[in-house]
Design brief:
single chain, 640 residues, alpha/beta, Alpha-Beta Plaits, 3 domains, 8-stranded mixed β-sheet, 7-stranded parallel β-sheet, 23 helices, 18% strand
Length: 640
């Protein structure tokens, strides 16, 4: 067998092996996530798409600040919005607001007002309502019947409102329809909001044939779990939006011309449009990490509606085409690395990578999802195989291994490994703010839940809480069970001298009001000097903080239950706020090892009016001193 035949056999084997390894790696969670991130990059490179026939009515800050009622009692405003959409000539209204319980106990007329508007408007404009599972139980317990839910169910306009999140908590897909059941007609299957809204907009119901969904004669591309890959039109706030306040105001003033200009002939989606109800989508990149760049849930539904109405579906290429593309990528890689000189390989290799990236992006723009990450993996594995073959046959093995380590491990990783031998056991004294948080009643919660569920919920909770801490410039030192120890100091990125207590307080306030997975958080923080640095040995190091300040912060957090509070801070921390944040005196408690009682404070915004009144009546002298201190601090200090 001559060298040419041998080389051909080896190169073919490398190419086929690269494809096989790439396909096997595609089943590993890390590479699945990598594939999703690569897919996200296509959206960013492509940029926004034109949007028409869809309008968002936002429950935004303007509405929140303008309507005097609690949001739970906004039924009259939603009713007016329904009538406004009908008067404006909207084709369909999607109400992305769930009504889980009636409010007749508090506002006797509100449920009836909303149901009346639904009944009045539905004959001329369909209203898609968020499906509430509890509504199905209302027949057994009429006390919890919400008229709107029952009417929407009867009219066949209730739909799933939940969003489908991937393992990295990004929303890229949306469920379209529930799983078909034998003997159940397609029209009786529950839809997702986007699909039901699209049906009503087009005036045509979907057809389910041989496991495929057809809308207006088009084959709706969905995966085996009946999820649509959303072709996002752009980042957050791409779709036109109007404040709910402006729509209600125009309706009540009888300004039909304005309503027609806003809503005429459109699919209208009404839902939360503020900073709290936002989700990561493909346009939420590493360069836009602020929550404001996330997409509101109502706009996610709007993107799904747009995908269905335009027919601009994103669908994975057939398996045979994927394998053929991977084989081409690996074959080109092998030919380049084994047949060309090193100088030529250095030129043609990157050019080939650029060509692969370009081809996958062009296909993305055509609605075909050809995995960029798998193409690059196949190319990379073949590159590795080709280099191994080349050096094994043409270079000294010692030279090959030396260069391969530098090529594939990378300079930064190698440098880090070298420096790790020089890490020393050092520490320093520093003035910091220590924050302790804890989940209220977590032990009791764990006793009644499956461990896997507990871990999943705890991971979601911790991810959100750590995000808040990072947002305010602090860093998490360690997790203690369901608790968090965080440190704020002047060395934090972007910190101003002496502002660590202020940042910690604002962080703690946001954490305790953010009830992730229905977990309630308690927090306590204290300002003082600590020893901070590496503790341990050369075999095991831990970066930690030591000192009485840590113990005091932990003690404060544990006092929340006794003080009927969610956040407590020490007198030292209160003084370090420089009057920039209002506080209220809560009491004084004994501290182990100290003769004087420790004065504790909290935020009045975290108590109801009755509790604030009780504290003011119980400690009038201390409250007066605290208010005087805050006023004096505000007059004397400029906020750090």
């Amino acid at each position: 067998m001559n060298k040419t035949v041998k080389k051909t056999i080896f190169c073919t084997s490398i190419a086929l092996g690269s494809v096989a390894v790439t396909l096997l790696m595609g089943n590993i969670q890390f590479f699945k996530l990598l594939d999703l991130k690569a897919q996200d990059a296509h959206f960013v490179l492509r940029g926004p798409l034109p949007v028409k026939d869809i309008q968002i009515i936002g429950i935004d800050d303007k509405a929140m600040n303008s309507f005097p009622d609690l949001m739970s009692f906004w039924q009259p405003y939603y009713a007016d919005a329904m009538r406004a959409a009908a008067d404006g000539g909207a084709k369909v209204l999607v109400l992305d607001v769930a009504f889980s319980i009636p409010v007749k106990k508090y506002m006797p007329e509100n449920d009836g007002i909303l149901a009346g508007a639904f009944a009045e408007v539905s004959p001329v404009m369909p209203i898609i309502c968020a499906f509430v599972p509890a509504a199905m139980e209302a027949q057994q317990n009429p006390e919890f019947t919400v008229p709107l839910n029952m009417m929407a169910s009867a009219f066949g306009t209730s739909a799933f409102a939940n969003l489908t999140a991937d393992s990295d908590d990004f929303v890229r897909r949306q469920v379209l329809i529930e799983e078909p059941r034998a003997g159940t007609p397609t029209e009786a299957l529950m839809r997702g909001m986007a699909l039901r809204a699209s049906e009503k907009f087009l005036g045509k119901d979907v057809e389910l044939k041989n496991g495929k969904l057809f809308l207006d004669g088009r084959d709706v591309q969905m995966d085996e779990d009946r999820n649509l890959t959303i072709n996002y039109a752009g980042p957050a706030d791409t779709f036109p939006r109007i404040s709910l306040f402006d729509v209600v105001d125009a309706y009540r003033k009888g300004n039909k011309e304005q309503l027609k200009k806003w809503l005429g002939g459109k699919a209208v989606l009404l839902g939360p449009d503020n900073i709290d109800d936002r989700h990561a989508t493909p346009f939420y990149t590493a360069f836009t990490l602020s929550k404001k760049w996330r997409t509101p849930g109502v706009e996610v539904h709007a993107n799904a509606v747009r995908t269905l109405l335009t027919g601009e579906f994103l669908k994975p290429v057939p398996q045979w085409l994927l394998i053929a593309a991977l084989l081409i990528a690996s074959s080109v890689s092998v030919v380049v690395v084994t047949s060309l000189a090193l100088s030529q390989t250095a030129i043609w290799g990157p050019m080939t990578v650029i060509a692969l990236l370009g081809s996958t992006h062009i296909m993305f723009r055509q609605g075909q999802l050809l995995s960029t990450s798998q193409m690059l993996l196949s190319f990379g594995w073949a590159l590795v195989g080709g280099i191994v073959y080349r050096f094994a046959t043409a270079e000294k093995k010692s030279t090959f291994f030396k260069n391969a380590i530098g090529l594939f491990v990378g300079k930064q990783v190698a440098s880090s490994l070298e420096q790790s031998e020089k890490i020393s056991l050092t520490g320093k004294r520093q003035m910091v703010t220590i924050l302790f948080t804890d989940i209220r009643g977590f032990t009791a919660f764990c006793e009644s839940k499956d461990p896997a569920v507990v871990v999943d919920l705890l991971n979601i909770y911790m991810s959100t809480m750590v995000g808040i801490i990072v947002k305010y410039g602090g860093h998490v030192n360690k997790f203690i069970g369901d608790g968090i120890l965080a440190v704020f100091c002047d060395d934090d990125p972007g910190a101003k001298p002496g502002d660590h207590a202020i940042r910690c307080c604002r962080c703690a306030q946001e954490m305790v009001v953010n009830e992730v997975c229905d977990f309630k958080t308690g927090a306590g923080f204290h300002v003082g000097e600590v020893i901070i640095g590496n503790v341990g040995s050369q075999d095991k190091l831990e970066f930690t903080v030591l000192g009485n300040t840590v113990n005091m912060a932990s003690r404060l957090e544990s006092l929340n239950k006794e003080a009927h509070a969610r956040m407590l801070l020490s007198e030292e921390a209160n003084e370090m706020l420089y009057g920039q944040i209002d506080t209220i005196y809560v009491g004084a408690v004994p501290v182990k090892g100290k003769t004087d009682l420790m004065k504790i404070f909290s935020s009045p915004g975290l108590f109801d009016e009755q509790r604030n009144a009780e504290l003011n009546a119980q400690y009038p002298e201390q409250q007066a001193k605290n208010k005087a201190m805050i006023a004096a601090a505000r007059a004397k200090y400029v906020a750090p």
